[in-house]
Amino acid sequence: MKKKFGKIFSKDSAEKRETITNATSATTNTSVSSLSSTFLRDFDGLKLSTTYSNDTTRVNKREVITNKREVAISKTLANIERTMKVDICYVLDCTGSMSDHIDAAKDCILRVTEYIKNTNPCIRVQKFRKNLDSVTASGGGDSPEDVLGGLHAAITKMTWHDGTRVIFHIGDYPPHGRRFYNGVDKYPDGDPNGLTAESVFEKMQSKEIHYFFGKITQETDTMIQATISSIMTSVTLASSIGSTNSSKQRKDLNPEVPNWDCLPQQKGVILGYNMPETLYELKDQRYFNKKNHFSREFYFKIAPHPFSAGVEKHAYFAIDTTSDPSQKMVMKEYSHDKSENSFEKYLEAVEISTVTGYLSKKFNSIARKKNIPLVDFLEAKVVRAFIDNRTRYYVIEPELNAKFKRFNANSGVIIEFHPTLEAFAHFTYVHTEGYLMICDLQGIELTNRFLLTDPAIHCIDPMRFGRTNLGKKGIEKRFLANHECNKVCRELGIAKVKSAKFFCRN
Fold first, then answer.
1. Does domain 5-14+85-234 have CATH number 1.10.287.3510?
2. Alpha-type protein kinase domain location, by residue (predicted)?
3. Architecture of domain 32-71+250-491 in CATH?
4. What pTM was estimated for this model as a whole?
5. On the CB side of 27, how many CA atoms lie within 13 Å of its CA?
6. Better pLDDT: 363 or 210
């Protein structure tokens, strides 16, 4: 029996994800003193983007590099704008077997839609809700359903726009055919119209549609197993801006904590920056040089394989054996790109950590007086060690032992809204007089406190804070244009953004 499907359309906002990438490790007996002195030489070898010079040629080169960076930022912002235009089609099984589940399925769809509306206030959902309310479960006959027909209709009959395209499929039984179901089936040879999972998902791939299935009963388990190869080969299930060759990056991951007793102790040097004392020092990139750094010897053990990988870095379990007892750490290593100065990338990460530490301290000094939750960041440092017969750098920070959440992204998308965190981002913009804004807030939520890690910074100087810095345009287009001041903003006394063009909507 063919099945009826409710096809419902809405819009969503997408998020840009940015995470972690590559390497393995071993041990050596290189002296700590030689590593420390080499650290200082590394500073002297930094490329132009981290130094200033009165030499006309070098200044001109910096201008060229800055212009290229501005072009790259504009392209990234255009891509974000495009991907944030999301078409969502809900394909819902509406036959009699869904009678016990239809209300829950509709409620799920409605909650997704309300979330979309909350993150995109301009979206109108009244007509959508009215159409959803009219959907009922009736008809059918045998257990298998016209799943492939419903998906094919969604793919071919919906008007898909440019941007991100998503199909959410909710149902309790699989398609017709022995391949998917061994019970009573009026069409045991498969779809009566000749559709196959491969042909449907191939067409889905050609239109660059993301597919998600909402499982209700175990009756669809065989369907999931039988079509998994079709889905994996034909449909892009997820994407991340800037990611390349991700399957290769992730092939050696090991999520298990190693047996530390079986691993050798490594030695190296750990480096960080002294905290700026003034806003002037924070804004002056020349402050972040070898005159304002500190270093010390460091002993540690590191897992032989990373437990997580992302666009730019690999993350490893590690322990700090210098402390007693040993402290659990996470060490992150950037992918090896010979076209870039890798040491500079590590210094950028530590500079971001130092700047966020300074601004969170300023924020918390006010928050404590007003009983506002505190915002703290894990302190990141650089480790330099000689491993596998070569110099290796890592960003190191304490391990978070709680449920990790991502609250917002540097694209401006709010994943989980918290007024304190949105006010904190606003505060950093106001406190630095429009110079920068901290975003991409992720970490753990504790009692009256957030403990965050790996943030990004948008800054009007596009040459600072790495590739996740989307510059002045990122501040204006991805935050100020969308920010709505909340009660925490007002308690902090920052109800208006100090900009001639952009103001918070109270």
1. no
2. 279-497
3. 2-Layer Sandwich (3.30)
4. 0.68
5. 12
6. 363
Q: What is the Cβ-side half-sphere exposure of residue 192, based on CA atoms within 13 angstroms?
A: 10
CA distance 497 to 499: 6
Closest-CA residue to 262 (of 28, 29, 27, 30): 27
SS3 386: strand
pLDDT digits (tens, 9 = 90+) for 58-98: 667 778 888 888 888 888 888 877 777 778 888 888 877 77
The Cα 424–Cα 404 span in angstroms is: 19
Reported as a single tens digit per residue, the pLDDT across 182-222 is: 777 777 787 888 888 888 888 888 888 888 887 676 655 55
Question: Any idea what DSSP says for residue 28?
Answer: -
Neighbour tally for 29: CB within 10 Å: 7
Task: Output phi, psi for 21, to 5 deg.
Answer: -140, 180
**CB hemisphere CA count around 66 (13 angstroms):** 18
Please tell me what DSSP assigns to residue 161.
-
In this structure, the number of other CB atoms found within 10 A of the CB of residue 190 comes to 19
Smallest Cα–Cα separation from 440: which of 404, 409, 419? 409
In the chain, where are the structural domains located? 5-14+85-234, 32-71+250-491
Structure tokens at 432: 């630095």
- Mean pLDDT over 296-307 rounds to 94
Other C-beta atoms lying within 10 Å of the C-beta of residue 225 = 10
Q: How far is the CA of 426 from the CAs of 118, 242, 296, 417, 463, in angstroms?
A: 19, 27, 35, 14, 22
Residue 70 main-chain phi, psi, to 5 deg: -60, -40
Containing 268, the helix (H) or strand (E) segment is strand 266-273
* Cα 258 to Cα 304: distance, rounded to the nearest angstrom: 8
Confirm if 494 and 429 have CB atoms less than 8 A apart: no
- Residue matched to tokens 């969170």: 360
3-state secondary structure of 236: coil
Residue at token pair 């919906």: 158
